[in-house]
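subagent[fold] <- orchestrator: predict structure for attached chain, return tokens only, no commentary.
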Amino acid sequence: MTQWFEEDARVVSEVHRQNALARQNQLTKPAGSLGVLEHCAVQLAALQQRDQPTAEKISVRIFAADHGVASEGVSLFPQAVTAEMVRNFSAGGAAITVLARELSADFQVINVGTVGVLENLAAVVDKRIGAGTANLRVAPAMSPDECARALAVGRDAVNALTPTDIFIGGEMGIANTTSASALACALLNLPPQDLVGRGTGVDDAGVALKATVIGDALQLHRAHLNAPLQVLQYLGGFEIAALAGAYIRCAQRGIPVLVDGFICTAAALVAAQLNESVRAWLLFSHASAERGHRLLIEHLDVRPLLNLDMRLGEGSGAAVAVPLLRMACALHNQMASFESAGVSRE
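subagent[fold] -> orchestrator:
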């Protein structure tokens, strides 16, 4: 029986792609002179099935959850910070909330699994599955049921969206770089030393500890890491699973996704391995300063739009890339053609 996340993504419109390419060749500029901006406009036209692509209506959903592996000391910050940052998101004081306001984006935080139950907060939806995942160094991070429920949280969040041009997923979860690194190691068959970075800012000893913890987890669960769904269950986080579910559902609904940095790209890798047809719907916003991100984007064979040495997460890098997409659409839609402007081509 086919599960919901295995259902095909919406077909990308080749007709609109060719129309967009033809228009780019008619605009008053040398062919290809706008570089990646041209590619972005053509890609959005094909995904949105529009002759005039747009990036005006932005939906941002931040998925928050705690990780049992935080007990291993892999993060510079205490686990309480996850819930404290959810409150900061609600109050509008976090980086992503500032950026979302600047973009006039539809913004919401979804609590998938903080350690403690949170009070009612503005712009925060309670979909808490449990008090964080288990410590992946000593046990599966999630049960099969918890993993399925976390994927469904992302699916349901996308189902509830009002019409939108671009979806941005973000995350908050102390120790989630450890979980994301473990996922990437298992899915790409790479050693922890190749992927582990500083996360919240740990020193060299902290990086070494993270690599050891991940290595122990990979060894403990090696018999169960043969398929992407099991890898997600044993090594993932509630918020990472929710992101993967959201990306898949966006592709099925025909909503382009702007992927953030390392954590979100790990979730995108999971989504693409669960459902190959999702890949066409993923645009990658920036090259994270987090060490393992380069390997993920190389494996996915994609080119991020920006390289600003960002590694905050929260969806912040993706939000920063939105004005670039808006400019790409404006150029595509509003530039004159050689014929309409009376400009000679030869």
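orchestrator: received. Logging for downstream: The CA atoms of residues 31 and 336 lie 14 Å apart. The beta strands are 58-65, 106-113, 124-126, 166-172, 257-259, 282-284.
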